[in-house]
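Appendix B: complex inputs.
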Amino acid sequence: MHRGATTGRRFVAPPGRAELAAARLFAVGGTVLALIAIGLGLVLSRFRQEPITLDGPLPWFFADLIFIAAVGAMAPRLGLTALRMLSGVGAAGFVVVVSGVAAQALHAPTDSSLVPWAAATFGAPLVAALVAVGLPGAWLVATVSLVGAQLVRELSGLRSAGFWANDAQSLMTGLTLGFIGAIVLDISRRLDAAAAERSLAAESASRERGRLTARARAAALVHDEVLAALNLAASPLPLPPERVAAQASRARTLLAGLASGDESGEAAQFVQRIADDTRELCPEARFTTTRADGWEALQLTAQAAAALRAAARQALANSARHAGDGAARAVAIHWGAASVTVRVSDDGAGFDPKGVPQSRLGTRVSIVQRMRDAGGLARVASSPGAGTEVLLGWPCNAQAGEWIAAAAPSHPVTAPTHAEAAGRAGAGFEGRFAGQADAQVRDSAAGTRSYVEDDDGVAPSPRLLRLGLPVIAVAFCATQLVAAWAAAAAARTTASPDALGSTAQWMPFVVLATVFVGSEVLRRGRDPRPNDRRVAALIGVLTTATAVGAATAPFTFADMWFAVSGALIYAALAFRGRAGAALAGGGALLAVIVAAGLVQGAAPLTIVMVAARPVIIVGLSAALAFAVESMQRRAAMLHARALRDAEQLAWWAGRRAELASRGAQVHSLVDPTLAQLASGAQATPQLQRQCLALEGQLRDDIRAGRLAAEPLAAAAARARARGVDVVLLDDRDGPIEEAHAGDLNVDLGTLLARMAAALDLAEQHAVGRVLPVGRSRAVSLTIDGRPIDLVAATPQNH
Amino acid sequence: MQVGRIAVVDDHGLVALALETLLAREADLEFARHDTSAAPVVRRPLDVDVVVLDLQLRDGSTPAANVEALRAWGAQVLVLTSGENPYLVREASQTGALGIVRKSAPSDVLLAALRSAVRGEQVLSTEWASAVDADPRMTSAPLTDRERQVLELYASGVGAKTVAAELFVSENTVNDHLRRIRSIYQQLGRPAGTKVELYQRGIEDGFVPPPSRG
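Resulting structure:
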């Protein structure tokens, strides 16, 4: 996979918006669950006529639930770390209270049915644990809760097979919803990473674009300088030789910088001038330069360069005059991506800036005002005996301001070194965005197989799936078996010898087998996203299992265990891209439950109690599956953009390299001649023709395209050496392939040879062109104002 | 005889010096002054007829803005190019400049261009014609076949007189065609609706040579 690698920089995705949003949402969900639990507890207390007393363990449960509810209520204002810590406290509180209740039951069994109920009500603490420490925490809370509750019941003589069925399904619900929640958090984390990757890619791309633009501009300016030098050297006009030599020398310096591919000619020249000034005014001063990443993007304007240089000269002169003999002086230039800064410092006598009378304008005008006028900024810091530091920055932007502000106000020694400043400017993220999950997780008994296979989306971490799916699968088999067994056992104890009673003893195992058939229908599909037929079969099997079970079991929470089984399989279906179908199946499930309840004449409250858990499981998983899908779509989009940015970056970098190599070519071509001019060589006719020929060749490099080939290139050089003004232009985008009426069936090589022959006869000027697409000819040549017939290869007569 | 006063805006003092030397020999043309930016030139009262403007200035200004400022000041503008970058030539062609001349053009060509500019006449050059002729946008421009023929011949370095002979029309007709082509091209405008296009234009204006062909 290409993710992460394309940006070419190492980084860690910082905790981002999506993860925080998901954690906050869960915490709010925890509040809702806690309030429901509190309300239900109060209702049950009245319903079962078991008042809540302050000396019992119940207030501790309520206190913990209130704490979790409060954390969720504050969640929108909390950061991720605080939210995790407070949620962790809430979850740990629940584990401590359950453990305490179980330990207490060893000594003094409770007769309250509310205590094991409260210990088994793990919804809110599970969500809190999920937010705090993820899946292991959530599973720990569910396990401790149910083991504790069961222990309390056993020790207090409240045991019943019905509780076993209920707790098994509770455990499975907790494991499944915890797992789904962990996946949502994990995906949200990955979405943040994708967003970070995208923004980094965009940033790198735009930096590269800046570099290219800067370099292209530098190349063009250097080209301009070189052409000017050659042009003027070739001019028949009487120009002062020293001016021509100076122009040639300037062109050489800039061209050498461009050809090195490393130093912008402009930057090199600026640095060179400051170095010269330093040597002249403070010969013993230490001179250093540093550059930050992306420095090429900065173009120093002529005005700013002049202001910086003049201000630096003034500072150097002041230091030489006032700092005293033996003072250590330093000049440092820092070339950043968005600003240039120059520091002139010494450890000499120093002065008290406040003691300088307002009437003395020296520093204020020559340094501070000058920089301000050029759009820069300057700060002069000094104190008697502690030396002087002058900081100059341009332009007056955040980077320069920060750099200057970071320096100590009056003590030059403590100012950050330029290398440090450069390091800060160039510092990127550290570490590495963990490679994306490629692994495709295959099987699980519950049917949650590789629900994400979109290579360009975000898959949940393979570790999470590797850890979670087998546990879910095994737990599903085990808890369903326990639930079926418990239901059968309950039927045995209460069995009447009638048909229904004996049927109730073995029927749970039939229903269990049907439920397993359902999970296999989902699991065995080749496509991770089941097709309509498979979905219909699944809904059919599960609805049948529920209907058969409901027809043969008493309508109680424990005996209707299979409603939860079906809901859990629909949860897996939702996460296989069929959330809508899962909701439909859940609807069928609900209809069967309600119908069975009405037929058996169950109390409305009992119907609600039995239906609540399957409805919550299916509804919640469908909602979370939708959320995950949307996050994955967004991550895929971000990733595609990051990829596009990376491609652009590569293109820009390539163009920049091309420009650099072109700089090197131009350098090797013209430098010997420029050197000759710079040395003040006399303008002999031969040198002038040489300059003309080079100037023409440089132009041809840019515009002649296919015409800059032999034998035409040599003929053009000969013509220029004779003083002929030759212009060669390739104005065609695309190949020359189709036949042309004018130069039909004549290949380019032959045409070039004919053009070369004709060019040798030119006396004053010649224009050769590759014509744009769609013309009657491929090329044209005009010699001394007359078009040449290249098919006949003879000048036309008029 | 009225003397045409010429100012130069160019980064290189030496270019101005060369032009000054050249003009010193001509009775009807006079060198006025040189500057490296257009801004200081237009701050003075109008005292020149033609400003010779370098396409690429280091002060960060654009050719279009410079031409506009100089035209608003009241001077005619003749643009000098050195690298034959067709993008820049096209941009300059759409300004109010009278024409485009290559720096390396022979002195007589430059002097003729200056004299035309002093008279306020369009200066049509091979550089201009080839850049316009090769502009893909011209394929959809409302040009007649005859105008396309004129443009192609002129862009190939054939002078107006020879073009006229080739096409059996008068030289005046050829010049009329060229003037109309020029005005159509000026109206073509440059689409720059989106940020991307603006950026691409920036690259063009940032003086990227056209992609190498091979």
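Chain A touches chain B through 62 residues (CB under 8 Å).
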